[in-house]
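Hypothesis: this fold can be encoded by more than one sequence.
Test: take the structure tokens below, design a sequence, compare later.
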């Protein structure tokens, strides 16, 4: 099992770096959006004109900020969780519940990836463009959804693998009297 654990840890380290880079990209997008909006406001106020692309690309930036940092937020434990019922479960039951909910979440996220990719490919094949001055090819902003959900899905799989590794490790640790304790056999606190 140590070979598998080493491979999982190596892939996990690479994934963590990519996820961190996505958070940095989101930070840059925020700064670019702020610069564009500020500049557009100044141009409109002092010169009576503006850059015609700022509103469109700011909208794309908002979509970027909604999808690309999902994986980073998950990695940092920043997604909303309601745990008033889960907190009443024993440690072992919490571990099994975390595995089950993470698995279901993986299915949902990869379904979102699939349909987002279909939307992106359809836009690419049809040559659809935005109805704006810039006439941006729509596959570009549509690519935000599959990119963000791909990163999110990979991070979920990484966390799922760690949950499974932690479960197998806790099963192999000796109990108080030196006997192995499985995750489901811990004392129930609720």
């Amino acid at each position: 099992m140590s070979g598998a654990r080493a491979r999982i840890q190596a892939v996990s380290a690479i994934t963590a770096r990519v996820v961190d880079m996505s958070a940095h990209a989101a930070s840059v997008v925020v700064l670019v959006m702020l610069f564009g909006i500020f500049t557009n406001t100044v141009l409109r106020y002092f010169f009576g004109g503006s850059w015609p692309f700022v509103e469109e690309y700011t909208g794309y930036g908002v979509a970027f900020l909604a999808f690309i940092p999902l994986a980073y937020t998950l990695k940092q434990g920043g997604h909303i969780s309601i745990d008033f019922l889960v907190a009443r479960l024993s440690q072992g039951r919490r571990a099994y519940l975390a595995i089950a909910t993470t698995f279901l979440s993986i299915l949902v996220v990869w379904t979102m990836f699939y349909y987002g990719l279909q939307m992106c490919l359809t836009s690419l094949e049809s040559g659809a463009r935005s109805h704006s001055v810039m006439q941006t090819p729509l596959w570009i902003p549509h690519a935000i959804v599959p990119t963000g959900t791909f990163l999110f899905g990979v991070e979920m799989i990484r966390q799922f693998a760690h949950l499974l590794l932690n479960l197998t490790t806790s099963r192999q640790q000796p109990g108080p009297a030196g006997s192995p304790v499985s995750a489901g056999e811990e004392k129930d606190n609720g």
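Residues 2-175 form one domain. The two ends are 33 Å apart (CA to CA).
Hypothesis status: open.
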